[in-house]
Amino acid sequence: MSSPTTKAVALTGSDQAVRAATADYRGFAVRETAGSTAVIRIYDDPDSANGTLLDTIALTANESMAAYYSPGIAATTGIYVDIVSGTVEGSIRVGD
User: Fold this and answer.
1) How many domains does the chain have?
2) Domain with 85 in it: what CATH number?
3) Which of 17, 23, 32, 90 has the fewest CB within 10 Å, making it most exposed?
4) H or E segment at 10?
5) Is 71 part of any domain?
6) Residue 66 and residue 57 in contact, taking contact as beta carbons nearer than 8 Å
7) Does residue 76 form part of some domain?
8) Which contiguous run of DSSP H or E holds residue 9?
9) Distance of CA 56 to CAs 2, 7, 15, 67, Å?
10) Of the candidates 85, 82, 86, which has an alpha carbon nearest to the alpha carbon of residue 18?
11) Which 8-state DSSP code applies to residue 18?
């Protein structure tokens, strides 16, 4: 039996749909890049910030943060990332 696969999906720097189907939200690795503050919200929703809130990440200027959730948090409709404020780079961890 194979183990579940976790994939890193790169952030584009703006709001984005990460997955449009059922998935496990397994975490993130992000960094604020503009010397300000940033807020990121991750939703259980395939294409908008209207679903169930799965995670909120608040970063200070130039801060990096990462978290890994095992086995993951079930996202029943998909995963959507809302860049509420600031400039960030990084990725979201997604499993099947």
Assistant:
1) 1
2) 2.60.120
3) 17
4) strand 6-10
5) yes
6) no
7) yes
8) strand 6-10
9) 31, 20, 14, 12
10) 82
11) E
DSSP states along 28-91: EEEEE-SSS-EEEEEEE-SSSTTSEEEEEEEE-TT-EEEEEEEEEEEESS-EEEEEEES-EEEE
pLDDT, one tens digit per residue, over 30-66 is 999 999 999 999 999 999 999 999 999 999 999 999 9
Q: In which band, very low, low, confident or very high, does the pLDDT at 1 lie, cut at 50, 70 and 90? A: very low
Does 70 map to a domain?
A: yes
Map tokens 């990440």 to a residue. 57
* pLDDT level of residue 3 (50, 70, 90 thresholds): low
Query: What is the structure's pLDDT at 49?
Result: 94
Is 67 within a domain? yes
- Token couple for 10: 């790169």
Domain that holds residue 24: 6-95
